[in-house]
Amino acid sequence: TLRATLVAEVRRRLRASWLQRGAAEAELGWIDGVFDPDVLTVGFARRVPTYKRLTLMLRDPQRLRSMLLDPDRPVQRVVAGKSHPADEGGKALIQQVVRFADDPEVRHRIVFLPDYDMSMARYLYWGCDV
């Protein structure tokens, strides 16, 4: 299915991202449990200037956490993007999302995928519900 393809691509890119950040392959077994093809999937992918409010979802982190982990109606979010090399504000927003998504409690339900491009857009467009 399209969702299963998205889940596989998210896991592949997430593994590559963690390896690039210096993680050892032995530490990344948890990535095989990232995302569930049967859970509502919300995607956010674009350039990350400060005015696009990427971190609005983090305004109430406990509420976001409870939505991601709801036992009856969980949600998963895939966030993909990049900022202009000279946009320090955009880079700071991405760092906030990455810090939240790195939390072991929620990292199976929210991911940040760096270096958003058209090949990634195809997976997100067809595999996300929203």
TrEMBL record:
<dbReference type="GO" id="GO:0016740">
    <property type="term" value="F:transferase activity"/>
</dbReference>
<protein>
    <submittedName>
        <fullName>Glycosyltransferase family 1 protein</fullName>
    </submittedName>
</protein>
<keyword id="KW-0808">Transferase</keyword>
<dbReference type="InterPro" id="IPR052182">
    <property type="entry name" value="Glycogen/Maltodextrin_Phosph"/>
</dbReference>
